[in-house]
């Protein structure tokens, strides 16, 4: 939750205390799902390579203590499940709103004859990649995060003094739309800005991340661990959906975004037509 300092005012902001309580309950529920009450061995249907089972064995053999297990479960469940889902919803929204881009994407992928998605070389579909990155740029699921604590007094740019103990964070929404980095059309949905070949797109992606102009997965040593997996999930889902359906925004739906926290079109309604 943004601005952890507000927890100190929980008595005058009851929703804050309620949210903390819900987080605690959710975490306990998740732990109870993954850790059975007795120290049983692997059962039928459990897979030693499955993430939950691997975390459980690490906890059983003492590699992780209970708090570490719980923290890992929380971050993997929330980060690994909610963010790709938000990105999917936002991408369907943007493509529903910009039907010409949806159509162009479909043109690029509709005639590929494949029997198995595993055989597909995603590098041969640059427009699909560019579309996903453009969705991620404009509507990063973690649009703002304030979850760092300054350990030592710091000074940014020689003039911004940050005392020890200050909560700090970053705003991906604003950074990803900075006109200095992305030009005067930074707010426009334009997948082609990423390039037209896989090489160009990869180069642009690497440089935008290295220059902190595109921070949807954050960066540095605490960057998202699921970045490649999330992109693959998106490629597969959009590829399958755009070949099977055409969709648009429900004209009855009022176009609106969530006001804060996880970013997505609030309560979006889409109308799908089978092709
Ligand atoms: C579109 C999808 C995703 C987005 C936009 C996203 C974004 C992010 C961001 C911005 C962070 C840094 C949070 C911070 O600054 O504290 C992060 C961390 C993390 N993400 Fe993702 N993520 C996505 C999908 C995934 C998936 C699918 C997984 C795992 C299956 C995953 C696992 C993680 C983990 C474990 C961390 C914590 C890394 C650390 O603190 O060292 N993410 N993610």
UniProtKB/TrEMBL annotation:
Database matches in Pfam families: p450
GO terms, molecular function: heme binding; iron ion binding; monooxygenase activity; oxidoreductase activity, acting on paired donors, with incorporation or reduction of molecular oxygen
One of the protein's GO biological processes: mycotoxin biosynthetic process
Keywords linked to the UniProt accession: Heme, Iron, Metal-binding, Monooxygenase, Oxidoreductase
Cofactor(s) the record lists: heme
UniProt-annotated binding residues for heme: 224
Coiled-coil portions: none
PROSITE patterns xref list: CYTOCHROME_P450 (PS00086)
Homology family: Belongs to the cytochrome P450 family.
Official protein name in the record: Cytochrome P450
Source organism of this protein record: Penicillium nalgiovense
Taxonomic lineage from the root: Eukaryota, Fungi, Dikarya, Ascomycota, Pezizomycotina
